[in-house]
Design brief:
The chain is an alpha/beta fold and 390 residues long. 37% of the residues lie in helices and 12% in strands. Bound molecules: pyridoxal-5'-phosphate.
């Protein structure tokens, strides 16, 4: 096999949008009502219905949803919240917003999801919640996490990667006390920026909704419309986390496409799996069991570095030289300066995440990729391996 010639650059991620999103946004702009209003309520209703959940609160990011979830369950200064190290900044930073302590735990080697035994080991009287992450779109073992927790301790799922994901036949968003989704531009559906808090608890949903809008009492937005009044009450110093109708209009169209976009992601993931199945230098990601569903937000390969004469950074550089945008998810939290300096974390404390993250590469995977794009990614990976086999 000869080295493929560099192609036009294939970005690591691209949203799947077309004229339908543009028309939906244009309609909102023409209506004259740009911020939180009827489109947001419609998006919430449709999203809750899609998930099969009772309450959905639209906000301007998943980070905001996580913050509101912790606020609603009453996290305070000095409390502890258990967070896996193999995640994005947001999962743990929201705990710091309360001057509470993110208690970091290691992950399982095959899935890179939170290790329930590690959770058990760090439980304390100060533990207020656990935030599992469904890494890449594969559900964390929620039953096993629940099994180690004292009764009544809430689980807040960081489901930024997990739309649509199923765990033991159940939709993510219907299982724990609170589930937070992301509609950031590179996620499995997007509103540009946006997020959704989903729960079965009406009082919790109410609190999150009020706190997402300055702590102003119920449906304050109605005060600007004919059916509303000028009167409102501030019941707590809240936040400015509401989603706009412009973003919600985009989200409604994306939600309609979600099934199709997910099906395409799954086809691409299966092609990658087949292409790398017999390549000793590559470990492919864990698949969902037959009663589960993988959202395929990310496709992360892990390199068997001792078999190669190239390191991970140079591997990614070579893919880029061949026109393929790759990335890394993640450098685990405990290796970042903030956590090292604030909590004294070390590489040795979280051996699985330290070892696995160092050999991980995220390949492009999104519904707009053509078969040709997929073939080019595979060819670039195989060629880079062939050129650097020990
Ligand atoms: C993207 C992401 C978030 C944050 O989502 P935003 O909508 O950008 O706030 C949180 N957690 C994980 C694991 C993510 O990947």
């Amino acid at each position: 096999m000869s080295t493929p010639s560099p192609r036009e650059f294939l970005p690591f991620a691209l949203p799947d949008t077309d004229d339908a999103e543009i028309a939906a946004i244009a309609e909102v702009v023409r209506s004259g009502w740009l911020t939180t209003g009827a489109k947001v309520r419609e998006f919430e209703r449709r999203f809750a219905e899609y998930i099969g959940a009772s309450h959905a609160v639209a906000v301007n990011s998943c980070t905001a949803a996580l913050h509101l979830a912790l606020e609603a369950i009453g996290v305070r200064h000095g409390d502890e919240v258990i967070v896996p190290v193999h995640t994005f900044a947001a999962t743990a930073e929201v705990v710091r917003y309360f001057d509470a302590r993110p208690v970091l735990v290691d992950v399982e080697p095959r899935t890179l999801n939170i290790d329930p035994e590690a959770v058990r080991a760090v439980l304390s009287p100060r533990t207020r919640a656990v935030i599992p992450v469904h890494f890449g779109g594969l559900a964390a073992d929620l039953d096993a996490v629940r099994a180690v927790l004292p009764a009544g301790l809430p689980v807040i799922e960081d489901a930024a990667h997990a739309l649509p994901t199923r765990y033991r036949g159940r939709m993510i968003g219907t299982i724990s006390e609170v589930t937070c989704f992301s509609f950031y531009a590179n996620k499995t559906m997007t509103t540009g920026e946006g997020g959704m808090l989903v729960t079965e608890d009406a009082a919790l949903a109410d609190r999150a909704r009020i706190m997402s809008m300055h702590g102003i009492s119920r449906d304050a937005w109605k005060r600007f419309t004919a059916e509303g009044s000028w009167y409102y009450e501030i019941i707590a110093p809240g936040f400015k986390y509401n989603l706009t109708d412009i973003a919600a209009a985009l989200g409604i169209v994306q939600l309609e496409k979600l099934q199709r976009m997910h099906a395409r992601r799954a086809v691409i993931a299966a092609r990658f799996d087949r292409a790398f199945a017999d390549v000793a230098e590559v470990e492919t990601p864990a698949r969902a069991p037959s009663d589960g569903l993988h959202a395929w937000h990310l496709y992360c390969i892990r390199l068997d570095l001792p078999r190669l004469t190239i390191d991970r950074a140079r591997f990614i550089e070579r893919l880029r030289a061949l026109g393929i945008g790759a990335s890394v998810h993640y450098t685990p939290l405990h290796l970042h300066p903030y956590y090292r300096e604030t909590f004294g974390t070390t590489a040795e404390q979280f051996p699985v995440a330290t070892r696995e993250a160092a050999r991980l590469i995220t390949l492009p995977l999104y519904s707009r990729m053509t078969d040709r794009d997929v073939d080019d990614v595979i060819a670039a990976v195989l060629d880079t391996i062939a050129a650097h086999r020990r």
